[in-house]
Amino acid sequence: MNNRFLNTIYSIVKYYNIKINPGSNANVYKSLSKNIEVLIFNIISIASIISLINNSQTIQKTAVLMVRDYINEKCNTPHMKKGGTSLPSDYFGAINPAYSENNITNDILNVDYASGIARAQIGGGGNSRRSYKLTKTDTEEFIAAIKNICKYYNLKIGSECIKMLVEIIVENMDCLFNYLHMASKPITTDIIKKMIKLNKKFDIFK
Q: CA-to-CA distance for 203 and 42, rounded, in angstroms?
């Protein structure tokens, strides 16, 4: 672990408008960078182990799809179809972190004085889930990390599978940072650790 994704984390935190406790600023960025490293290593390792079990020297598309199937329920948010209903996604079983038992704060409907909001909206408003778009540098860093891990397992991998793995990584990143964005108080390293420890959807970060 060498905090190689710090620059990416700076951009992501800004994109999701995540509030960080001033006294924990540097440590939070390092913690999040390490979490991304763990995420990437775990995802590529699962694909590698599947390939090795099947006596393959190359990570194939089938193995990558199995990885996605293995973790796709960890942060599953239903998407609206055209011509669909205006009911909130919570109604269809989507997990709303603001009202979850694993919410990292005790106040699930806190007063937001800065924005002049007395109570958070319950339902409605559609799906507010955000998705970070990797920069060219981010993508190159992720690809380099994937190739290095494949080299560690003595496996080859093609560009199509690399692209698919990057997408899986970003999906799980979005899951983590969307939850952090929902926090009603500044983030600390303890809050991150507690959230990952208590919520099964973040097992891939462990």
A: 10
Domain of 151 in residue numbering reads as: 6-76+97-106+128-205
* Total number of domains constituting the chain: 1
Residue type, 44: I
Provide the CA 59 distance to its chain's centre, in angstroms. Answer: 23
Looking at residue 48, which CATH number applies to its domain?
1.10.20
Distance CA 12, CA 7 (A): 9
Residue 110 pLDDT level (bands cut at 50, 70, 90):
low
Write the pLDDT tens digit of every residue in 19-40.
Answer: 998 888 899 999 999 999 999 9
- Within 20-96, residue ranges assigned H as helices are 25-53, 61-71
Q: What angle do CA 167, 180, 1 make, to 5 degrees?
A: 60
Report in angstroms the alpha-carbon separations of 90 from 10, 125, 128, 183.
30, 11, 12, 18
Give backbone dihedrals phi and psi of 129, rounded to 5 degrees, phi first: -60, 130
**Domain annotation covers residue 117:** no
